[in-house]
Amino acid sequence: MPRERLVVTNGHVLSMDPAIGELERGSVLVEDGRIAAVTSEDLSGTDAEVLDADGGVILPGFVDTHRHTWQTALRGLCADWTLADYFLGVRLTLSPRYGPGDVGTGNRAGALEALDAGVTTILDFSHCVNTPEHADRALEGLVHAGIRAVFAYGCFAPPRAEPHFTAHAQRLEDARRVHADIAALPGDLVTMGLSLTEPGLIPFADTCAEVRAARELGVLMATHTGCVWAQPSGLDQFAFHGLLGPDIVHVHCTACTERDWEHLKRSDGRISTSPETELQMGMGRPPIRRALDAGLVLSLSCDVMSSNSGDMFSQMRLGLQSARADDNDLVNARRADPTTLTHSVRDALGWATIGGARALGLDDRIGSLTPGKEADVIVVGPGGDRLNMLGVVEPAGAVVQQANASNVRHVLVAGRPVKRDGRLLGVDVPALRRELEASRDGVLERTLADGPILPDPRPSFDDLAVALLPNLDVGAPGAE
Ligand SMILES: [Zn+2]
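A: This is the predicted complex of the input protein with zinc ion.
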């Protein structure tokens, strides 16, 4: 007999399951953390605990496939920065000054921010692992927040005066230690992943070692792929060494060549686009049409918390409108007007939910409201004193193009309510704020004591690439 029953009722159900589709007035029944039924029946009279959607939209929790959660206390810093500024300022200058506690606080606050916005799963691309304790605290932050996460241990080495890890192999050994720690955690909300160092920053033999380590552990990989125009993507080398596969989430891919897309297609690579970063930082347009034309799994991500919004509404909106603009441009180029739009709001919802679940290899567990799956369920809609979700005619349209995190009324992770009636449960927000601000102040103080965050004048990316990417051998075996 089920022990815990809960029903989310009285809402428009966007199940993202093609067999179930949409229910104008429906309910989702949850038993022991799993979805037991998705139905048009009114289940509010059952013996289950009731969460009233109050005419809002019931949908699966959002899945963010690439978030540098540790940067949460750097909010707004990079809002006018290019990719080169970001790389110099955050990756090379601020990150080495992060202590383990800073990473832990950033991760906990960032994961709670995600939950507050209805993002129930993140791939935490954790590339500020300065010591083993940094990894421990980062993981602890996710676990305490109660989010579903792939903790993607970062192999990148921030340039520290006295590095803890003195050899690349030590990082991989530490990743194996963390893998064992995650396996020993109760439940399976958090799983292990590996964030690869960008090819070019390290000798390619080390890249091979990273991929081998991930495959030995049987864990998902994530990597920044083809987002620097001045340098090749490295996919030729990946392909030549047999490293590509569907267990790699390729982030950005904005500067990928035709040949790169062939590699991605042949290997069934998973694509994560971060529209807000890509449009801002000069990476090129989000590769939505390219990924779809190649038949690849497409997902969305929030990326840098030092600049972007931490909610998927923003990424859906920017990605969708950018993809529409790309297609409309083709028509406009003939001095004609489009008669239809090529991507729909339901497409965007798919990228943000089931697409993300597929990218992370979790689509048998989450990503749609399907009986048997774990109950990551959210309700977006009217409530409180918000006005922007009143008078809705088209629920999917309103969610994608008009909602924001303040409209997320209820959030369940594996059936457990973490946000209810617009409020996160069990979170002391003033205390979290104090902790985050103290971390921010400490990191900035330590950094500024050594000089400015960015040099003046700033170097071009071409200069930076030559200095920082010495290991990208353009003429590598396998390249034509
Ligand atoms: Zn990134």
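Residues 66, 68, 125, 224, 251, 303 surround zinc ion (CB under 6 Å). The domain at 5-59+371-424 is CATH 2.30.40.10 (Urease, subunit C; domain 1).
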